[in-house]
Amino acid sequence: MNASSKPKLSFGEYLPKIVVAPTFVATLIFIYGFMLWNAWLSFSSSRMLPKYDWVGLKQYERLFANDRWWVAAENLLIFGVLFIVTCLVIGLFLAIFLDQKVRAEGAIRTIYLYPMALSFIVTGTAWKWILNPELGIQRMFREMGWESFSFDWLVNSDMAIYTVVIAGVWQSSGFVMALCLAGLRGVDENIVKAARVDGASMPAIYRRIIIPGLGPVFFSALIVLTHIAIKSFDLIVALTGGGPGYATDVPATFMYTYAFTRGQIGVGSAASMMMLMAVVAIIVPYLYSELREKKQ
Amino acid sequence: MQALKIQNVEKSFGAIKVLKGINIEIEPGQFLILVGPSGCGKSTLLNMIAGLETVSKGDIVIGDRTVTHLDPKDRDIAMVFQSYALYPNMTVSQNISFGLDIAKMPKPEQKVVVDRVAKMLQIEPLLNRKPKALSGGQRQRVAMGRALARDPSIYLFDEPLSNLDAKLRVEMRSEIKELHQREKTTIVYVTHDQIEAMTLADVIAVMKDGEVQQFGTPQEIYDNPENQFIAGFMGSPSMNFVPCELSKSDDGYELLMESAGKVTRLLVNQDIPGLAQYVGRSVVLGVRPEQITQVSEDKPDSMVMPCAVEIVEPTGPDTMVTIRLNGVKTVCRVHPTAICSPGEPMFLQFDVTKAVFFDPETELRIR
């Protein structure tokens, strides 16, 4: 009995490891392996096809000498900052309004959260029609009689990046709302009562007690939104296609264009390494603080 | 002038009446405790005094002002919550001074108040900490400090000790009492713990089902409960209720008591006119554990009867002995030296001079 039950027990112990192993191997190869491969390519002279030679930082020099890269980087900065800040502000206010015990809260919450269920391709396409001067808002106002009305941001190379912000905010602020709402629900209602007895008005209670208490929520939202912003590719492809010209290029579309359509794999790899560095710069401090908190 | 007057106050949620006409008045400096089982409406009443719940009917008067429909901030009150409700993002001193800051008191004056309160509650070393870094007892002190800083005309306490462990609860209880005696503050205090009510209160309002069952000093309520609910709720271990037959005897009334198969006649040596109409009928005898003791010579008025011991529970100073009287489990408080083992018979002495009687149907006191 004892002899036969022993191996069974150890199989039970190994089972979780066996189940997880294929995913672990796949992650190792397809994420970290390819990251390393990409890093190698960024130090090679690859053009149409990968080459495995060593040219040092030459591809990075070419990248930094490229005007289009700097347009993409600047666009990412504009888009990232506006997208994140607007999402946080709108999401917070939606959550505060929803937390006032409104009727049909469940339905309203679903409506605001629904854009999350769409892919950025769908969002981008829908907003392309809405913002298209010939089809959408501009035409609607002109047909209503306001002949001089003009809203041509989508085709205006100075303003096009802001249409990306609008579409991105529309899609993601519901997500921030959900996070903030969960945070607000976690506030002990006695704290609000105590502050009311202390003489504080509701705006003062939100400003001085509740919103400062949502710090961790904002932090989580910030992390998620930041990496959405850095990775953003499909929204831009669907909404503006990087245009007019390359006015709304971001690093992701830049990388794709160079690596896969213009036969500049080396420059493309260097661009994606820059994006990886940006993500690492945000995620690593986050992981560090998370893990440290768990240890305590 | 009364410090607080609650006049015919009612509260309904839709068709459900949770408070049915409450009338309470207390003097300045009095410590009022609202006590009752959960769901009796005591916390609702406290929230209404605070202005956190609307009043459906009736009036609340604090000092000489009717505050029934005023905002909490205009009522000159401070409140301490069960969950402490400290502001988690502020330090202890910011917590204490928050109300003063809202009232636009200048910072140097705020500091003076914070220092005075911190000294009073001995929390000076904690002033720069966040609530997260405090123990339960410390948080409790800070919550009280926040109330003290505002120096209101009435303090409201909502089960402030319920989240503390037993030892700390006893310590904080006596500190609250000391604070009240020293500062002569007017306090309304909600608890479900009858020991807290007995030890702290100047006056107690025992509540049940949205009504005040009895209003009086702790001793009045302990000695002269209006009905069986109050008698059973106040006191620990609680009063024994023994149903028994009442008959007339030469000296007054007699109760038929059966224990361990033996029937004894227990003489009622009290003058209770109301008992006359219960002769030949059943009444409920209410007798506290400390009124059934071991036999001693210095109580000539007492009755002695043999009982079978079922359970023995030592508490240290006294031992609780459970016997069966007329088929009902009855707890007696016996000196540890006089104790015998479960299953053995024991002579116990009944002091019925302070016993009370209730109508078996209405559960009201027979007087």
TrEMBL record, chain A:
Span of domain ABC transmembrane type-1: 73-288
Family: Belongs to the binding-protein-dependent transport system permease family.
TM spans (from-to): 20-40, 76-98, 110-130, 159-184, 205-230, 265-288
PANTHER family assigned: ABC TRANSPORTER PERMEASE PROTEIN
PROSITE patterns the UniProt entry points to: ABC_TM1
The name this protein goes by in its record: ABC transporter permease
Coiled-coil regions, chain positions: none
One GO biological process term: transmembrane transport
SUPFAM superfamilies: MetI-like
Membrane-topology annotation of the record: Multi-pass membrane protein
Location relative to the cell: Cell membrane
Source organism of the structure: Leucothrix arctica
Gene Ontology annotations for the cellular component aspect, listed alphabetically: plasma membrane
Keyword terms, alphabetized: Cell membrane, Membrane, Transmembrane, Transmembrane helix, Transport
Automatic annotation (TrEMBL), chain B:
Organism for this UniProt entry: Leucothrix arctica
GO terms for cellular component: ATP-binding cassette (ABC) transporter complex, substrate-binding subunit-containing
Keywords for this protein: ATP-binding, Nucleotide-binding, Transport
GO biological process: carbohydrate transport
PANTHER family according to UniProt: ABC TRANSPORTER ATP-BINDING PROTEIN, MALTODEXTRIN IMPORT ATP-BINDING PROTEIN MSMX
The protein, known as: Sugar ABC transporter ATP-binding protein
GO molecular function: ABC-type transporter activity; ATP binding; ATP hydrolysis activity
PROSITE patterns attached to this UniProt entry: ABC_TRANSPORTER_1, ABC_TRANSPORTER_2
Limits of the ABC transporter domain: 4-234
